[in-house]
Structures are given as C-alpha cells and as structure tokens.
C-alpha cells in the first residue's frame, strides 16, 4: 500500500513538472504580456523597468528555473495583472468551482443512476425508451448552448432564477459557499444543471448497460433460482456489482467536471477558477495560468488516487500492492 | 373604520418612503474585469473607470473629452516650463481629512515607486521634473522643456490620501483599507471577478450622485451580460453585443444609448522594409521592391475602400467614416480632412502609375476579438482590394497574440484601433518616427517617418497656449495623412443598454461612470 502511494506521488510530481514546463513555454510563445499592458506612450526605459520588474527580461529557461526554485518554496509568483500571489487568486476561486462541480456530480448521480437502473431493468418499456432518447440529447447538446437556453428560459422569459453570478454566500469553516442560503441555491441551480446534463446522460447509459450485463450473470440467475426477492437481487447483488464502473467513471468525470466548468462558468458569469483561467489567458497572465493548471492537476491526481482506494474497498479482488 | 384606514395610509406611507431608497440603487454590468483597486497599479481602462468613482484628479474630462476643473480649480503656465495648479479648498477625503498640496505631491510621486506594476502610469508623471508646494492649496509642476499636455496628463493620476496610502500594499487597496479618495462614491465591497459595491459619499464637494448604492457586476461574456439586462438583474450594461443591438432597440422595455467614441480604426502599412513579409506578386514570389513604400499605392488602397458600405453593412451602422486619426470634437481633429471617397477606377490608375498595372498580392492582418465585427471588417476590405487588382488574403488572431506580433513588426498591413483625447498624443505614438528612448512611434507599426510631421507634433506638444497647440496638431495630422502614413477607416460607436426609466449621457472615452446615469 505505501509503495503504491509513493509511486503515485512520484508520478504526480513528474506530471506537475512537465505540465508547468509546457504551459510556461506555451504562454511564452503566445505573445508578450507587456504589449497588452504597458501604455502606448511608454519609452524604452519604462518598458525595460517593467520587464525587469516582472522578471520577463530573462530567457524563458531562466524564468522557468526561477519559477521552479520559487515553487519549491511554495511560491507560484504574483499575477502580472492583479499584483497578488497567483496561488491565492486561484484558491480564492476554488470553492466556487468545487461547489459547482460537486453539485453537478450529485445531480448527475441522483438522476442518472436511478433512471439508468430503470432503463436497464425494463429496456422494452416506453418510459425506458423515452429516457434513453432524452439521454442522447443530453449527450449531444453543447454545454454553452444548453446554458444559454436555460438562461433565456428561466432567467429572461420566466424570470424565476437569476441569469448569472454567484449571489449570496455564507461562510462554512471559513469557506464561502452558496448552499447556505436560498439566494445561493437559486444562483447555483442553473449552472449546476447545465454542467450535470452531459454527465447525467453518461451515468444513465453506463448504469443501464452495466445493469443489463449484470442481469445476465450467473449469480443473478442463481439468486432468482433461490427465490430471492427481486428487490433484493437488484439493490443488493446487481447494484453492488455495477457500483464499480459507476465509481470509476464518477471519479474520472469529476475531474472533467472541474475542467468543463470553464465553459459553464463563462456562460453564467460564475466567479470560479475557470473564469479566472479564461481571463488570465486573454491577458497572458502567466503566473495565474500556471497556478491554475498546477492546482487542477493536483486535484486530478488526488481524485484518481481516491478512486483507486475506493476500488479496493468495493472490490476485494483489487489489490493495491505492487506485484512481485 | 377610521383606525384601519389610518393604519392603511401609514402602510402606504411606509411603502412610499421605502420606494425611493430602493430606486436609488443602480446595478451596472461591466464588460471587463477590474484587476486591482490600487488606482496607480496598472493603467488599463476598466481599472481607471472604477477608480474614477473613488478618486479624482487635478483636472477632469467631460463627456465630450474637454478638460474641466477637478481637484484643481484653475491652472496656468506661469512660465513656459512651470504649470501652477490652484487646489479646490475644503475638499474632504473619505476619512474626513482635508485635501492639501502634500497629498497631490505624494500622489504624483507614487506611480514611479510601484516596481511590479505591469502597466505603470509613469508616462504621465515623467515629464514632471520637479514638484513644488507653494502653499497649502497651490502646487507648481516643472517640466524640462515646455510641455502643453501636462494638464491632460495629470488627469490620469488619481490623487490619493497620503496618510492612507503611504505604506499600503496592493492587498490594502483591494481590502478597502487604503481606498481613501475624494470621489463621489466610497468603497463598500470587492468580490474579485464578480462584483464591486460602492456607496454615495455624502461629503462630496460636487454634484451629489443620484444613487445611494452602486453595484458593478463583472459580466465579461457578451451573452450573459445581455441576459442580465433583459432579465432585470442589472439596470444597465456597457458594450452591448453588436448582434443584439437591433433587438434591444426594438424592445420597448429598454433604451439604447450610443455615440461615436474616440476609437478610430485604421490600417498601418509597412513603409520601412524593402521586402515586406506579406507582400508578393500574384504568383506568391517576392517583388523587386515594397509597393507600400510608394505613396501612390497607399493612396490607391485608401481609394479602393468603400467606407460608406463598410460602415453601413459590415458594421451595421455602428461607426462613421473617418478622414482623421482622432474623433470629431477632439483636439487635433482637422475638419478639412474628409473621409476618402470610394474611387476604384482612380485606385487602378494610381496602381498602374506606380508600376503595378496588374496589382500584387498581400495579406491583411487584424484582431478577431477586439473591435466591433473586426474580423468581418478585414474580410470586407480584402474583397474591396481584390476588386482593384490587389489580391488580398485575410488572417485574424485573438488580441493576446495579435498585438505582440504587430508591435514586433511581423505584419505588412495590420488593423489598429486607437482612442485618444489629443491628436498630438495619438500622432506621437502612431506616426512619429520610432525612437525607443523617447517612446515616440511606439505603435507606429509601419515605421512611417517624416521629419516635418515629427517637428509639428513636437511643436504642438510643446505649446502651452491651447489655441496654438490645436492649430499645430491639426497641421501635423494633415501632413501625415497627406502621406497616407496610415489609412483611416472609421470612428467606432460605443453602445450602452439601459432599463427604461434611466437617463444616460454617453461619454466619448467609452467609460461608464455611475453619475452619467440618472433616474428619469
């Protein structure tokens, strides 16, 4: 187990280093942030002073080496545009994104899994066919379009829900969250639904096919033969077995929820990390872009680790020990 | 039931009393994020717009771009290199302390001390070589050489309270601790990337704002910003998405406010290389020389562009054709310079006379997320050029990549938009002979160079007499445009969307200040 963890940590560090180098070079290649920020009348001395002040007067590998050195001390640099530590800007926005992603995942699970079970158990019923068809829609509609339609329908025409923003937040253990107030929920609902739609369809279809598959297995037939109650067969035996793919996919998809949140956050003016990233790219604010990616990669790695640990818990056949 | 009626009328009264208080809140949807609340940290429009509510400068600029008294009631050049500013008496900072000459000197010194500012305000403070406190309400600013635009330059430097800002960090400004100004609004809250709240400053010396509380919502994407207005989540938005302007106009619940802004769009043409990277013959082979260096070719390009059609169709009427570099009404706009008439035959003749009877090929470069319909504008111009025999290709990029490459001189013909409150300033950056030491020609991508223009611009900047300055600035513009240093296209419109019941005076500099909005 500990060998497994150590290997994972080393892998994670390598991924972080590679990512940061790639992003560093990529943002460097896009353009010069000073061309966007320095005012038009600045002379050479002004520009040189600004360039040196931001450390941009060095070649990129020197800048990168400096960055890695500072990173070892937990310093990811200051945002060019905001003048505050980049990591603080990202962490400040993280609760909003995580809250959105968790809400979306919960919606996807609470709606997708039961419906998927139903479709898997009664594939020929008209309701299952309808649900199946709707899930195809959920798959194929682009997120930003769905978001805009939600805004037009619920925000503009019906006027039931706000069109964007995060609304009122309350502090929970020092973290600002929307779920503590009605106003917060009203703001959270549409973006969470938008973000959940694709994942919901995905989980639905996954659950349905896993259920169909499980129903054909011997243990189900034997359980039936033994005369077990159908409910017990479905909720104890079948459900336990289909849980493994569901947990895997939910875990992996949670990461992509955070990544996809970029689009949803932009459409709903949701002040999360994704919106910060989009704006930072637009302004070539490299410290923020790098900090965002490092934080996201760390999140991904953690989530994958948790999924692997959950596996072992759910499926006794999985061993985390390295093979001899 | 007299008692009941009494209670009822009391209730109505109570309602009537609460209504105005509620009506005096204003919510504005902004199109760009405010990156820092420190008014000297970075010189970008969204930050300046917000700081203008909390802070003021020695001079102010009215809706038409004309200089007006601000914290200084008057100013004059006591000798050619000394400007004297008389401060307004009895102006109080938000913390109750009085504004004095010390605060002014401190504020003018501060931009140069911020070493990690990515876009410092030092271009405006640099001409000042000495600052002298004559008395509590009089400041003298000395320049090395005579310098006319100083009163406009100091408009860009917000006056902060020395006491509050002396040892403040950017974090102190963003938390509101150091945000002590003299402006009509006081700081209430800042949720980065989301919203900023301000409240009325009851001690304000000037016209009191009509609103008790103003909330700025950061809505950088077009569709959500418009949706917020349509749904009533905000009362007004700036930068109405072009595609939705017609729809908003037709909706009786909203009002559209527009005016031609200071932003002028024009082409910069490579006039320095003998082999321009994106100019070839029609087969794609390099030409013997760079045709853009020939004034007849530049004139032909200008004549080939149908500005009326461009403005009417491509820009959906959201611009006026331009014959100048600065917008009408702004110092240095020469009325005699008219937009070039569309003349494709004349263009062909000029090309033939210049030795290109069959034309040549080039690539037009432009941004695709900066100006109104910018990508389509580049495409339209490419088609117009192709009609007179110049085979034009189109390449557009996002702004973040475009400006850097354009400033590095990567392009042959490139689109640029420029907003300025003084023609000599604009000419200095756009057509002045590039000189990195002085900052001249820093946006002169085509590297046009004419000593006569340089002289006129320098003379204009050096004249402390406003009328003389205006005359010189107009002469400089006329000379540069006679050479087709750049090819002006149009002055762009700025658009705001408002809930019905709010009056609004649009500004030429595109800013959205809360006091421009008034309840009807």
TrEMBL record, chain A:
<dbReference type="InterPro" id="IPR000515">
    <property type="entry name" value="MetI-like"/>
</dbReference>
<keyword id="KW-0813">Transport</keyword>
<keyword id="KW-0812">Transmembrane</keyword>
<comment type="similarity">
    <text>Belongs to the binding-protein-dependent transport system permease family.</text>
</comment>
<feature type="transmembrane region" description="Helical">
    <location>
        <begin position="242"/>
        <end position="270"/>
    </location>
</feature>
<feature type="transmembrane region" description="Helical">
    <location>
        <begin position="290"/>
        <end position="314"/>
    </location>
</feature>
<keyword id="KW-0472">Membrane</keyword>
<dbReference type="InterPro" id="IPR035906">
    <property type="entry name" value="MetI-like_sf"/>
</dbReference>
<protein>
    <submittedName>
        <fullName>ABC transporter permease</fullName>
    </submittedName>
</protein>
<feature type="domain" description="ABC transmembrane type-1">
    <location>
        <begin position="94"/>
        <end position="311"/>
    </location>
</feature>
<keyword id="KW-1133">Transmembrane helix</keyword>
<feature type="transmembrane region" description="Helical">
    <location>
        <begin position="133"/>
        <end position="160"/>
    </location>
</feature>
<feature type="transmembrane region" description="Helical">
    <location>
        <begin position="12"/>
        <end position="31"/>
    </location>
</feature>
<feature type="transmembrane region" description="Helical">
    <location>
        <begin position="188"/>
        <end position="208"/>
    </location>
</feature>
<dbReference type="Pfam" id="PF19300">
    <property type="entry name" value="BPD_transp_1_N"/>
</dbReference>
<dbReference type="Pfam" id="PF00528">
    <property type="entry name" value="BPD_transp_1"/>
</dbReference>
<keyword id="KW-1003">Cell membrane</keyword>
<dbReference type="InterPro" id="IPR045621">
    <property type="entry name" value="BPD_transp_1_N"/>
</dbReference>
<feature type="transmembrane region" description="Helical">
    <location>
        <begin position="100"/>
        <end position="121"/>
    </location>
</feature>
TrEMBL record, chain B:
<protein>
    <submittedName>
        <fullName>ABC transporter substrate-binding protein</fullName>
    </submittedName>
</protein>
<feature type="domain" description="Solute-binding protein family 5">
    <location>
        <begin position="66"/>
        <end position="421"/>
    </location>
</feature>
<feature type="signal peptide">
    <location>
        <begin position="1"/>
        <end position="23"/>
    </location>
</feature>
<dbReference type="InterPro" id="IPR023765">
    <property type="entry name" value="SBP_5_CS"/>
</dbReference>
<keyword id="KW-0732">Signal</keyword>
<dbReference type="InterPro" id="IPR039424">
    <property type="entry name" value="SBP_5"/>
</dbReference>
<keyword id="KW-0813">Transport</keyword>
<dbReference type="InterPro" id="IPR000914">
    <property type="entry name" value="SBP_5_dom"/>
</dbReference>
<dbReference type="Pfam" id="PF00496">
    <property type="entry name" value="SBP_bac_5"/>
</dbReference>
<comment type="similarity">
    <text>Belongs to the bacterial solute-binding protein 5 family.</text>
</comment>
<dbReference type="InterPro" id="IPR030678">
    <property type="entry name" value="Peptide/Ni-bd"/>
</dbReference>
């Amino acid at each position: 187990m500990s060998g497994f963890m150590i290997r994972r940590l080393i892998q994670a560090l390598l991924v972080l280093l590679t990512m940061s180098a790639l992003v560093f070079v990529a943002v460097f290649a896009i353009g010069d942030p000073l061309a966007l920020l320095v005012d038009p009348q600045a002379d050479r001395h002004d520009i040189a002073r600004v360039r040196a002040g931001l450390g941009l007067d060095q070649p990129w590998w020197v800048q990168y080496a400096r960055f890695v050195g500072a990173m070892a001390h937990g310093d990811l640099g200051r945002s060019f545009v905001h003048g505050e530590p980049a990591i603080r800007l990202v962490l400040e926005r993280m609760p909003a994104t995580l809250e959105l992603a968790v809400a979306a995942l919960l919606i996807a699970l609470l709606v997708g899994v039961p419906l998927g079970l139903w479709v898997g158990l009664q594939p020929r019923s008209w309701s299952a066919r309808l649900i199946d068809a709707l899930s195809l829609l959920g798959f194929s509609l682009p997120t930003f379009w769905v978001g805009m339609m939600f805004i037009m329908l619920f925000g503009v025409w019906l006027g039931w829900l706000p069109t964007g923003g995060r609304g009122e937040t309350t502090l929970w253990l020092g973290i600002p969250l929307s779920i503590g107030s009605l106003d917060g929920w009203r703001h959270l609902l549409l973006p969470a639904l938008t973000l959940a739609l694709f994942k919901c369809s995905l989980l639905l279809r996954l659950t349905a096919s896993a259920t169909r598959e499980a129903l054909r297995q011997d243990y189900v037939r034997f359980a039936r033969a033994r005369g077990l109650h159908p409910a017990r067969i479905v909720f104890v035996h079948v459900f336990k077995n289909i849980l493994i793919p569901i947990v895997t996919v939910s875990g992996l998809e949670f990461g992509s929820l955070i990544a996809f949140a970029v689009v949803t956050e932009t459409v709903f003016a949701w002040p999360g990390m994704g919106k910060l990233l989009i704006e930072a790219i637009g302004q070539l604010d490299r410290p923020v872009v790098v900090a965002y990616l490092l934080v996201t990669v760390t999140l991904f790695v953690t989530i994958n680790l948790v999924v692997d640990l959950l596996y072992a818990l759910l499926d006794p056949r999985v061993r985390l020990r390295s093979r001899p | 039931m007299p008692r009941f009626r009494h209670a009822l009328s009391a209730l109505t009264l109570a309602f009537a009393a609460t209504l105005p208080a509620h009506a005096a809140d204003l919510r504005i949807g902004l199109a760009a994020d405010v990156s820092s609340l420190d008014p000297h940290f970075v010189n970008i429009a969204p930050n300046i717009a917000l700081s203008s509510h909390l802070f003021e400068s020695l001079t102010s600029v009215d809706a038409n771009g004309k200089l007006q008294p601000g914290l200084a009631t008057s100013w004059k050049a006591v000798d050619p290199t000394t400007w004297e500013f008389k401060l307004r008496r009895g102006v109080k900072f938000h913390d109750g302390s009085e504004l004095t000459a010390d605060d002014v000197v401190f504020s003018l010194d501060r931009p140069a001390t911020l070493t990690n500012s990515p876009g410092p305000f030092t271009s405006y403070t640099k001409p000042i070589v000495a600052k002298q406190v004559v008395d509590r309400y009089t400041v003298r600013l000395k320049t090395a050489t005579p310098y006319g635009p100083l009163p406009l330059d100091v408009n860009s430097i917000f006056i902060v309270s020395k006491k509050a800002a002396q040892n403040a960090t950017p974090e102190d400004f963003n938390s509101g601790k150091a945000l002590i100004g003299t402006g009509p609004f006081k700081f209430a809250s800042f949720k980065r990337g989301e919203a900023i709240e301000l409240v009325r400053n009851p001690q304000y010396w000037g016209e009191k704002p009509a609103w008790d509380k103003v909330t700025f919502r950061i809505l950088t994407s077009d569709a959500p910003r418009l949706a917020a207005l349509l749904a009533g989540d905000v009362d007004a938005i700036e930068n109405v998405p072009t595609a939705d302007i017609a729809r908003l106009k037709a909706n009786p619940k909203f009002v559209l406010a527009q005016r031609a802004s200071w932003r002028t769009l024009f082409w910069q043409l490579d006039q320095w290389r003998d082999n321009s990277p994106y100019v070839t013959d029609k087969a794609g082979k390099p030409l013997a020389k760079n045709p853009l260096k020939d004034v007849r070719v530049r004139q032909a390009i200008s004549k080939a562009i149908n500005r009326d059609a461009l403005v009417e169709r491509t820009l959906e009427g959201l611009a006026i054709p331009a014959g100048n570099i600065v917008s009408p009404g702004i110092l240095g706009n020469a009325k005699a310079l008219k937009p070039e008439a569309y003349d494709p035959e004349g263009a062909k003749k000029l090309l033939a006379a210049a030795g290109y009877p069959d034309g040549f090929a080039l690539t037009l470069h432009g941004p695709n997320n900066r100006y109104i319909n910018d990508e389509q504008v580049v495409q339209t111009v490419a088609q117009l050029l192709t009609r007179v025999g110049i085979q034009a290709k189109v390449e557009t990029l996002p702004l973040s990549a475009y400006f850097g490459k354009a400033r590095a001189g990567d392009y042959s013909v490139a689109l640029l938009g420029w907003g300025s409150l003084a023609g000599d300033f604009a000419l200095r950056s756009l057509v002045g002979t590039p000189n990195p030491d002085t900052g001249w020609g820093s946006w002169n991508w085509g590297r046009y160079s004419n000593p006569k223009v340089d002289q006129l611009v320098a003379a204009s900047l050096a004249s402390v007499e406003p009328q003389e300055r205006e005359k010189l600035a107009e002469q400089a513009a006329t000379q540069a445009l006679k050479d087709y240093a750049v090819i002006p296209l149009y002055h762009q419109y700025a658009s705001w969307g408002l809930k019905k019941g709010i009056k609004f005076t649009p500004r030429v500099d595109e800013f959205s200040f809360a006091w421009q909005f008034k309840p009807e």
